[in-house]
Amino acid sequence: MSIIGKGTSRGTFTDHYKAELFTIWYNAGKPNSVSLYNMIPPEKVSGEIPSQSTLVDWIRDEFTEKADELDRQVMEHVGARLVAEKVEMLRRHADTGKEMHRMATEWLETNAGELTASTAIRLLVEGVRIERESAGLPEALKKMMSMNDEDLLEEVQMMLSNAPASILPTPTDE
User: Fold this and answer.
1) How many domains is the chain partitioned into structurally?
2) Are residue 80 and residue 58 in the same domain, yes or no?
3) pLDDT digits (tens, 9 = 90+) for 82-136
């Protein structure tokens, strides 16, 4: 391990190496320059490591802005995925409600004498309720998918803050 401050100035490193360090920094949760310094490999071409002050400059001047853009893209992707999953779930609920409604109506038409009034009414009411509650929401969520980035991000952030969710990390390329 090199001692902090023993690295080389910023001008001698390739863009590829700097991109590699950005990936390490971003995947490690955007640590400070001291922590990053302790986890970076030397450049393959020169065998050197940038100085801590060079890392501070790169993080401040380039890495942070690039990371903010990636974070924004991740939020958009997660938001779109959540919206699509919710649309599909609500479609299934609407279909189930329609089927329950159809079954209750059919049963009433063919077996009016065998079905108790309270059972038929409960089945009919529940089927209508599920259909009504679910039918309009998929269209509203589809509308969200056509929103501009700023409006969508605001809506997704509101949805995420109001609903429990678990987001699994994606594997990193090695």
Assistant:
1) 2
2) no
3) 888 888 888 888 888 888 888 878 877 887 677 677 877 887 788 777 777 766 6
Q: What are the two backbone dihedrals, phi and then psi, of residue 8, each rounded to the nearest 5 degrees?
A: -105, 160
| Whether residue 47 is found in the same domain as residue 114 | no
Which structural domain, as residue segments, surrounds residue 60?
10-67
> How far is residue 127's CA from residue 131's CA, in Å, rounded to a whole number?
6
Whether pTM > 0.70 for this model: the answer is no
- Pair (61, 78) in one structural domain: no
Provide the angle, in degrees to the nearest 10, between the axes of the packed helices 64-110 and 117-145: 150
Does residue 115 belong to any structural domain of this protein? yes
